[in-house]
Amino acid sequence: MSFRGKRKNAEGHASDENEGHAPPKKASNTSAAVDNDDSDNIVVCEISKNRRVSVRNWNGKIWVDIREFYVKDGKQMPGKKGISLSLDQWNILRDHAEAIDKALAENS
After folding, report:
1. Where is the composition biased (Basic and acidic residues) (predicted)?
2. Which of 1, 49, 92, 103 is the most exposed place for a label (fewest CB within 10 A)?
3. How many domains does one find in the chain?
């Protein structure tokens, strides 16, 4: 029969082999995004007060980023709501701009 759970020592108590060793703390995503100087951000346009389109170099790849921003401690911070398009994805979207405009005109 297979044993599941923690092993019990001679006294019948469950032992924790990693007792006293805390796992390493994870860095928060927001601090990594703010402190990371590896990303080059070029703001192309502001769609609205809190939405931006930017081109950035991240992890050696170029991305078109359409994202909402929020203010924290007086700084503009990127939010979770948004999309990052690779160059291939951006080219596909750009190539279909006329079809999107046509569909918008038909539904307006």
Report:
1. 8-22
2. 1
3. 1
